[in-house]
Design the sequence.
């Protein structure tokens, strides 16, 4: 029996449709799955504690040979609802913004948008657990994931980073993608992708299995705000985001499935 593939995936609700697909498929038997907050997923893939991960795309340049193995991701085509800056005052009146320690991508996205789009002079601070309580007066915070659900009605100023990125660039966005640091068996990748697709087909059923969120409609979130297909537009956005993060970056991202398709076409 081959060794199982060690997989790290995001523990948030937005990943459940993808996980549901994996569990409904025989591919589940090939995986040793661990669920973590995004910054830990990133760390596990980077340090070799996982072979494959649904990881924040901001860490791709830190990986030696990154392969994007899937046609599915955690993305958005504008508003995303769960990646926002919350504040009691408008952005231009803020002095400090805490950056969520769960995140790797959105903290970089916030830096880019503050610099290029909002153009406000604000100090960005690293956050510790419990930092949500510091959202007061001239201090705001970037928060991501399930902890943001229902927060929209609690703060007078809410800035959605997916929406701001679309207004700034005209592009969708990719927050997290399935990345491996070594080439995986193409047949495995195809089974893995087919399973993810099945999960998305089951969103209407899955809604019944997940805990209802106060002031937050999960079905709309999964079908309107989170956008799972890794489209050409999202790939373009990913390349632009990595360039804006670090203009000197030379990372070459390999798209495993595309390479397979291309090589099949070439045969
Ligand atoms: C849209 C989201 O995207 C998340 C944002 C991430 C980040 O900022 O590093 C990483 C994984 C994604 O799950 C979310 O979970 O709210």
Sequence:
């Amino acid at each position: 029996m081959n060794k199982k593939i060690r997989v790290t995936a995001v523990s948030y609700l937005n990943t459940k449709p993808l996980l549901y697909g994996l569990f409904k498929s025989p591919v589940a038997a090939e995986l040793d799955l661990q669920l973590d907050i995004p910054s830990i997923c990133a760390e596990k893939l980077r340090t070799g504690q996982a072979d494959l991960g649904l990881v924040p795309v901001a860490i791709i340049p830190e990986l030696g040979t990154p392969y994007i193995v899937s046609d599915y991701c955690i993305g958005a085509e504008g508003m995303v609802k769960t990646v926002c800056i919350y504040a009691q005052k408008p952005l231009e009146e803020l002095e400090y913004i805490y950056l969520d320690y769960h995140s790797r991508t959105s903290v970089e996205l916030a830096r880019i948008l503050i610099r290029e789009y909002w153009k406000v002079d604000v100090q960005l601070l690293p956050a510790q657990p419990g930092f949500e309580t510091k959202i007061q007066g001239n201090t705001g915070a970037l928060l991501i994931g399930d902890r943001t659900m229902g927060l929209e009605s609690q703060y007078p100023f809410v800035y959605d980073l997916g929406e701001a990125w679309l207004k700034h660039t005209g592009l969708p966005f990719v927050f997290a993608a399935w990345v491996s640091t070594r080439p995986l068996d193409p047949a495995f990748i195809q089974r893995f992708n087919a399973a993810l697709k099945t999960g998305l087909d089951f969103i209407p059923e899955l809604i019944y299995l997940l805990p209802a969120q106060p002031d937050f409609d999960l079905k709309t979130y999964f079908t309107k705000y989170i956008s799972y297909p890794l489209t050409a537009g999202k790939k373009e956005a990913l390349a632009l985001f990595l360039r804006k993060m670090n203009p000197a970056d030379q990372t070459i991202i390999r798209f495993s499935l595309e390479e397979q398709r291309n090589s099949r076409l070439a045969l």
The domain at 83-169 is CATH 3.40.190.10 (D-Maltodextrin-Binding Protein; domain 2). The mean pLDDT is 95. Residues 10, 12, 14, 38, 56, 74, 80, 82-83, 103-106, 144-145, 175-176 surround ISJ (CB under 6 Å). The longest strand covers residues 67-76.
